[in-house]
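Holo prediction. Input below; ligand is uracil.
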Amino acid sequence: MQELVELGARARVCTDCRLSESRTRVVFGVGRHDAQVMMVGEAPGRNEDLQGEPFVGAAGNLLNRLLAEVGMQREDVYIANVLKCRPPNNRDPRPDEIAACKGYLSRQLDLVDPPVVMTLGNFATQLLLRTTTGISRMRGRSYKWWRDKILIPTFHPAAALRGGDRVTDQIREDLALMRSVLDSLDTGKGVEAEPEQLGLF
Ligand code: URA
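Structure of the complex:
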């Protein structure tokens, strides 16, 4: 889609915050422009900064494997981060960086317009759902979200690499929930979801 391509081109030369000084490459996003699901992480890490693509390190490999278990491939979804540039040493994103960058994510959501959004980890979940509740309590459910989208929060795959089988199994459950929400939407069935909770915009 031309507009998304142009937005990516704009992001690649963005200097709206200090992260443009330390980044190697801008990590705009990747995937189908008409994806049914958008996955949103926090910010690029070292591998992503070098390659210019989100979730290409160990956490990304795990995400790819878990997607395959629900019959989906990385290419079937759209993957992006809240921040498009790597914070030095993977420090937490700062409020002014989020403010400078969030227009890119909201426009990506607008243009891809997926019916389902999955947030990966605390950071994206708390920002998009405007909550201070931690991911362990937010996950396992779907939420009505912006423009009738369904938002499904899950752990960041890096947390599964640290936290082992229990966290991995919970991500599996959340991906299975995503799959069943997509199936319900396909067959015109209603989707049960928590009341609307809007963040980011
Ligand atoms: N962690 C993220 O949140 N995003 C990436 O792209 C890679 C690691």
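DSSP finds nine helices and six strands in the chain. That is the main takeaway for now.
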